[in-house]
Amino acid sequence: MNILSIGGSDPSSGAGIQSDIKTFSNHDIYGFTVVTAITSQNTRKVTLVEPVSAKSLIAQIDSILSDFHIDAIKIGMVYNSQIIKVIHSKLRKIKVPIVVDPIIKSTTGAILLKKSALRDYKKMIVPLADVITPNKFEAKALSGISNTKKSAKKIQSMGAKCVIITGTTLSNGKISDFVLEESKEYVISGKKIPIKNHGSGCNYSASIAVSLAKGNTMYNAVKTAKDYVYQSIRNSKKIGKGVSITHKNISNGMRELSDSINHFKQIKNIYKVIPECQTNFVFAKKNPKIIKDVLGISGRLVKSGKEVVTAGEIVYGGSQHVGTAVIQVNKKFPKIRSSLNIKYNPKIIAKAKKSKFTVLSYDRSKEPKKSKQKENSSISWGISNSLNAKSPDVIYHKGDIGKEAMILIFGKNPSDVIQKVSKLTSFH
Predict the structure, then answer these.
(1) Considering the entire predicted model, what is its pTM?
(2) CA-to-CA distance for 373 and 195, rounded, in angstroms?
(3) Across-strand partners of 48?
(4) Which residues lie below 8 Å from residue 191, measured CB to CB, with a gap of 6+?
(5) Helix (H) or strand (E) segment spanning residue 212
(6) Structural domains in the chain?
(7) CA atoms within 13 A on the CB side of 75
(8) Which of the two ends of the chain, N or C, has the fewest CB atoms closer than 10 A to its terminal CB?
(9) What confidence tier does 376 reach under pLDDT thresholds 50, 70, 90?
């Protein structure tokens, strides 16, 4: 997938298009950039803002749109009316999700949107937004209203489809974002880290652009972005003499799972084994104890025609059911740390047995009533009742009333799981 970031250049890579490129790369997205202004800044201050010419801006946008497929666009710093007018004229007929991140002033206090351009910004940039992500200060600057809900409604009346006002409330160590979609409103909260940082707003809006490009719901996009920003602030680096720069560590485990997910999606006819409840693919830390110790997809691997697409992001705690299965198997066989679920098919089971895989099963109809009534306990019951002295490659069940039949494939790591899946589904 490809996303275009239109915004200012930050030589410290804390914010702006450089920050967006880092976020896109962390999500396995190819990022394009169009520079609206060249800034001279570091972690302490902005010393210079030099906007590009209209001619340069037009040429940059044309060079990207004429050659590449774009799945989403993020608009950041625009600085003046001339830039605003060019962006509006070039993007008003674009049919991909557009995320607008209002950049009015920097963390260090420098003005990054001219006062004289605010009227044109509200008239020409805000209406382009499928979602706009102002913080409390930016929301008030755009709407003239301090009340969060009224401010969001005013901004929505300017033409933005969805308005997200970030950092609206802070209590009990949590910080909340207010979301106003076209037909509903809600609040999403997350942990607050008391670190003054450079880049969290860019991380947030870029992550939302990624989720929308992948076809996720706004609710899931906001949840994912909030988690991404939390991680980027928690891992922020004090590499300059001023504020910390946000940074997201991509673990080797996350990269390995991401690579294997991409491999899975490329297996011939793999869409045929995606069950009705969809597929998840997980990779646990060593000796996992809880779901938060297991990487999984926050949504699912979803069948879309004859393709499989990732709906969601790779996060710790991303899969309840497959994650629980891995934890249960890992208790007895610590080398098993990865698993994936596919549709039950007797041909796959027969091939697994023929291939000398260790194949186990359990009967969901025999599950005790007490276990059935307890939230998320069926997987634990089934897996623990199926295990024997040999480490499993495959565990399956044939379903029950309201429960889809399923196959779980286990391995030491995601690559191991992929090798088994490729072998077992090659007859399709």
Answers:
(1) 0.71
(2) 43
(3) 40
(4) 173, 174, 175, 230
(5) helix 200-213
(6) 2-245 (3.40.1190.20), 252-424 (3.40.225.10)
(7) 30
(8) C
(9) low
